[in-house]
């Protein structure tokens, strides 16, 4: 009996794999034959540029200054930039809780995070940077989700997980979908990747 | 001469193996439940990086896998030590990505084609060059939904070693 069981066990050990079915979802921009045609003008204060070089060092450009930055501080800086709310009049940010520095981003909708990397950048560093950018957006989205829907008792990330869970009933999914989309419109991920040189 | 002979001390009694099948079956069921059949036979090293802001891939949507990494030790002689791209069972150049996506799309029912997600399984020590080429090809063929497949864990500390 044990022999047969061992045989089956070894067969399963060899032919199967522990599934990794999770990761960072991203959307690529469509291909442009001639990128010059579609250039958009964005104010410098609304861009937060992250550059990762071939030695995996990170440089952040904002408010017209470039500074090397440590991975540990990247999320904090990105949240500070996104949450700044320096806009006036039509660009005023209703829910931003930041410093309202006029030299930094106007509002959630205007703030753009741009990432560029070198061909020799290590993938693990790139993923860590991507992870921190998503974490910064999630931090603000969580806060806004709780403010907007206090009755739910969950934050944006938990709501999104529940939405993606196949065990969630369809009417609950529909309900969550409208709420998640409202938050995604309020705090859009304006993220751009420069072409690698 | 005593009537009651003292039992001879014959060392340790043999360990009973009666419960061995139970244990092995338990292991077997664990592996049957916790694992899935391998999608592709990897010819490259594929140790995924870690991240914590991850979302589950929606299994109801079609997923295609692209692997990037250095060839594994058995294949170094044939393919060298630079990062390579694996599509299905073969190592290919970036030019083959468009044809690969086209064939993946052809195998799907039409209504699912726009939902196709490309799962990029890239070795944590790979360089961005090969991935950049793949991303450009994916943009050209309009497969824009991608997922950087990662393990769950701390990204910052794991990126340092």
TrEMBL record, chain A:
Q: Which family does it belong to?
A: Belongs to the ExbD/TolR family.
Q: Which InterPro entries match?
A: ExbD
Q: Which UniProt keywords apply?
A: Cell membrane, Membrane, Protein transport, Transmembrane, Transmembrane helix, Transport
Q: Which organism was this protein described from?
A: Lacinutrix neustonica
Q: Name one GO biological process term.
A: protein transport
The main location is membrane
**Entry protein name:** Biopolymer transporter ExbD
| Tagged with keyword Phosphoprotein | no
A single GO molecular function, which one? Answer: transmembrane transporter activity
Annotated membrane topology is: Single-pass membrane protein; Single-pass type II membrane protein
Taxonomically, which superkingdom? Answer: Bacteria
GO cellular component assignments: plasma membrane
Q: Where does it live in the cell?
A: Cell membrane
UniProtKB/TrEMBL annotation, chain B:
| Protein's membrane topology | Single-pass membrane protein; Single-pass type II membrane protein
User: Where does it primarily localize?
Assistant: membrane
Indicate the transmembrane segments per the record.
Answer: 12-37
- Could you state a single Gene Ontology molecular function term? transmembrane transporter activity
What compartments host this protein?
Answer: Cell membrane
Keyword terms, alphabetized: Cell membrane, Membrane, Protein transport, Transmembrane, Transmembrane helix, Transport
Q: What does UniProt give as GO cellular component?
A: plasma membrane
Q: Origin, by domain of life?
A: Bacteria
Pfam families assigned? ExbD
Q: Which GO terms describe its biological process?
A: protein transport
As for family, the record states: Belongs to the ExbD/TolR family.
Would you tell me the protein name for this molecule?
Biopolymer transporter ExbD
Q: What taxonomic ancestry is recorded?
A: Bacteria, Pseudomonadati, Bacteroidota, Flavobacteriia, Flavobacteriales
């Amino acid at each position: 009996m044990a022999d047969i069981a061992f045989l089956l066990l070894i067969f399963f050990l060899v032919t199967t794999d522990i599934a990794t079915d999770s990761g960072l979802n991203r959307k690529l921009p469509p291909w442009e034959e001639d990128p010059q045609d579609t250039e958009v003008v964005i104010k410098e204060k609304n861009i937060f540029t992250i550059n990762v070089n071939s030695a995996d060092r990170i440089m952040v450009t904002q408010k017209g200054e470039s500074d090397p930055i440590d991975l540990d501080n990247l999320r904090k800086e990105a949240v500070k930039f996104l949450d700044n709310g320096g806009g006036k009049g039509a660009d005023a940010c209703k829910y931003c809780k930041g410093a309202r520095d006029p030299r930094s981003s106007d509002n959630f909708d205007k703030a753009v995070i741009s990432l560029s990397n070198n061909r020799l950048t290590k993938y693990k560093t790139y993923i860590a940077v991507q992870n921190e950018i998503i974490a910064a957006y999630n931090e603000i989205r969580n806060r806004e989700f709780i403010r907007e829907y206090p009755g739910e008792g969950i934050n944006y990330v938990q709501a999104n997980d529940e939405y993606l869970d196949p065990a969630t009933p369809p009417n609950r999914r529909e309900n969550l979908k409208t709420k998640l989309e409202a938050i995604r419109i309020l705090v859009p991920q304006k993220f751009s990747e420069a072409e690698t040189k | 001469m005593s009537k009651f002979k003292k039992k001879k001390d014959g060392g340790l009694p043999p360990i009973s193996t009666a419960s061995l099948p139970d244990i092995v079956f338990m292991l077997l069921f664990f592996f049957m439940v916790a694992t899935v059949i391998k999608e592709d036979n990897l010819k490259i090293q594929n140790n995924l990086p870690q991240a914590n802001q991850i979302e589950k891939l929606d299994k109801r949507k079609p997923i295609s896998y692209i692997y990037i990494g250095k060839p594994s030790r058995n294949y170094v002689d044939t393919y060298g030590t630079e990062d390579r791209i694996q599509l299905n069972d073969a190592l290919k150049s970036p030019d083959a990505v468009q044809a690969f996506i086209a064939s993946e799309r052809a195998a799907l029912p039409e209504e699912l084609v726009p939902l196709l997600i490309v799962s990029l399984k890239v070795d944590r020590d790979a360089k961005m060059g090969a991935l950049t080429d793949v991303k450009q090809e994916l943009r050209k063929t309009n497969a824009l939904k991608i997922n950087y497949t990662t393990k769950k864990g701390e990204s910052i500390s794991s990126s340092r070693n």
